[in-house]
Amino acid sequence: MIDASECPPTFGASPDDVRGFIDGGYQSLGNKEGNLSSLGHNFSISLDTFQNNVLPQLGQQDMVIVLISGIDGMGKMEKIITQVVASAAVSAGVYCCGPDQSVDCTPAEDQLLPYQLDMNIKIPWSIHEVLGPEVVPFCSHFYIEIAAKWLCNAITTGAHILCGKVFQNTMVDLKVSNTKLFHRAISIVQKYAGLSTGDAKLCLLRSIYNTDSLTDDMQLASSSAHILQATSQGKIVPVALLSVIQKCSIQEAKDCLKKTPVIRAALQQCLEKCG
């Protein structure tokens, strides 16, 4: 759930690109706000939603990762796994061994392979001897969750790299949706365009306000006002970079991205051309 929620601001991804679902939905999540499904389809996180509304729409370009914790998790997920295998999507099973199971313990041969998942990944319990048996009971749940989160993080990061969302190890298509990302966006423009902090900010603001001529009110507005204007928009940083490197208008930079929609390729071509 955490990894899916981080993809839109980090990579400028659509909320539908990476979604997370949990057995029991919000009741299992235990969030303070309770059930948020009424806010829209992207807020529906139950397995019933996945089975009924999402899975039937998946194709060969989609991937389903089934996270399974412990032997008992296999029984609860049996129906889901069967449906995932029958779908057109690529499927992967991630199995987290518990502290009371051996490192060699895996359901791959006995339980996962009969479902013919496209790939199986095991996260073994490897800290029992390091921390000692008296500590393990207190950190087992945390270890399993953080290990699974890091694995999902690696997969989604790799996917966005393949989609061209990352340029020279920099996430250049981030969504300017909070103060941290606003200042990070300025630093990215500064880095690749070779500008001062002040000029990089002006370049970013021209992209945010979709204009080549900023008014005094635009320049003097607070960071929160800039962020509010930017939050609903995409490709703000790539447009800013292309406009300043190519010395072109904001609209021409947008047209460039329409012709070359893979951001990494567009920026690479721009930098090579402008030398």
Quick summary of this structure?
The chain has 275 residues and is mainly α.
Describe the structure.
This protein is mostly helical. Helix content is 53%, strand content 8%. The protein is built from 14 helices and five strands. It has helices at 2-11, 26-29, 47-54, 70-86, 108-112, 128-131, 136-162, 179-193, 197-208, 216-220, 223-230, 236-245, 250-259, 263-274; strands spanning 63-69, 90-96, 119-123, 166-167, 170-171. Strands 1-2-3 form a three-stranded parallel sheet. A two-stranded antiparallel sheet has the order 4-5. A hairpin with a 2-residue loop joins β4 (166-167) and β5 (170-171). α9 (197-208) crosses α12 (236-245) and α12 (236-245) packs across α13. It is elongated and about 60 Å long. The model is unreliable at 101-109 (pLDDT under 50).
Q: Give the tally of β-strands.
A: 5
Give the termini distance in whole angstroms: 42 Å
Provide the helix percentage: 40-55%
Radius of gyration: 22 Å
| Tally of contiguous helical segments | 14
Arithmetic mean pLDDT: 84
Layout of strands and helices, then pairs:
Elements: H1 2-11, H2 26-29, H3 47-54, E1 63-69, H4 70-86, E2 90-96, H5 108-112, E3 119-123, H6 128-131, H7 136-162, E4 166-167, E5 170-171, H8 179-193, H9 197-208, H10 216-220, H11 223-230, H12 236-245, H13 250-259, H14 263-274
Parallel strand pairs: 1-2, 2-3
Antiparallel strand pairs: 4-5
Q: Main traits of this protein?
A:
53% helix, 3-stranded parallel beta sheet, 275 residues, mainly alpha, 5 strands
